[in-house]
Amino acid sequence: MGGSVSCCISPGESPKIRRRQVELDECPITTTEDVSEDTGTYLQHISDRELPDELAHEENPSDHPRASTLFLNKSQTDVREKRKSNYMNHTSPGLLTKKYSSCSTIFIDDSTVSQPNLKSTIKCVALAIYYHIKNRDSNRSLDIFDEKKHPLSKEKVPDDYSVVDPEHKLIYRFIRTLFSSAQLTAECAIVTLVYLERLLTYAEMDICPCNWKRIVLGAILLASKVWDDQAVWNVDYCQILKDITVEDMNEMERHFLELLQFNINVPASVYAKYYFDLRSLADDNNLSFPLEPLSNKRAQKLEAISRLCEDRYKDLSKSAMRRSVSADNLVGIRNSQAVLS
Asked: Which among 184, 172, 193 has a CA at the least distance from the CA of 120?
């Protein structure tokens, strides 16, 4: 993929490798040197070599399904403040715009974990990035993502570009433009957020006003190539962002991959966790997913899917029953043979 990274951490001092070494040092594998003539060499059970729960939960959330997502943790401070303010001022959170089902009409959510709603998902991802920037711990960054040193347009970068936090609408418009022009899917937006948080954890950096655009662009670029069957080429993004060069895109992609330690795998459990955490973020910030009335066509489709799943379950139950009966018959035959002998 390229040479060494000059502006980044050296591969030999990877933060992930250092953390893993600390965990192994804190949880040494104990062995016994006692060898018995009867039992032979002692082999430690695998459960004795597992890391304690407190260390397992400290793992990177973009790799482990049990670890809480970073964006949801960063958003909780603002959510608690909003609730406290509403309680102290005796004000309602706002107009109730959510639709509820009745005897005559049933409203269902159009978004699922396998087919998320594109517009709502992009809004949630933009909101997650907004909370990352607003509640960041510091301003740690790398030159390759600095918009002053690697501008995305020929327009002059404002002097306060590294101080003023972008609004949620600005982040949403930037992501929506890329997704609309490149015709990317909602699943790609979720994978983009996974790669973004993985980068922040592996490289031990922060997403801040001076680097958020290039970090988001790099994550979208990588997610579109990994997730979509027909990936968007780097030169295609140069058609969307007119003033960026292919060489700059290639260099940013190479640095992004090296900082991820070429770990682009997204397990299904991690993907599902990010999807449901984005929905929780939407509920906390009154970003409702669209609800549509259940039509006759949609109801027939759901009924067909339900009937298909029920038939499959019956087939699996019959197969399990046959295996159980055959096993019982085999045991009975062996018992009869033992009695006769």
From this structure: 172
